[in-house]
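Tutorial handout. Part one gives the primary structure; part two gives the three-dimensional structure as tokens.
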Amino acid sequence: MNGAPTVAHVLTHVLTDQAPAPAGHYTQAIVSRGQVYVSGQLPIRPDGLPLEDSGFDAQAEQAVRNLLAVLKAAGCGPQDLVKVTAYIVGVGHWPRFNAVYGALLGDARPARSVVPVPELHHGYLVEIDAVAVQPHAAA
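Part two.
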């Protein structure tokens, strides 16, 4: 396309010390054209201390807090969430997940899926990933 204007596609990696550092070949989140794609957040404290031996509520709270910390580093808050997917070990944890999630997200009500799974890496009971839109890009 000779003479057609081009727009550079820039991918920005998000990294904050307020959430656990990636343990593999990925980034905490990536921003593309104002959309924020948050990698799966496990119940690991920002200092790297795992919570796999904690109860479900503590694990769910830490995973959501990690999600919120990554969102904040990307210039977003819970009100900017578009879609959240939560993977929980056992459908019996669904009511507790809903309570913890609702308390931490407040009035934000993004589209959401909760997927019961038989197990997660390292014996964790919950993992959460999400998509958000940066406020300045939402207009």
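Part three, for discussion. Residues 61 and 100 are 6 Å apart (CA to CA). Residues 56-73 form the longest helix (18 residues).
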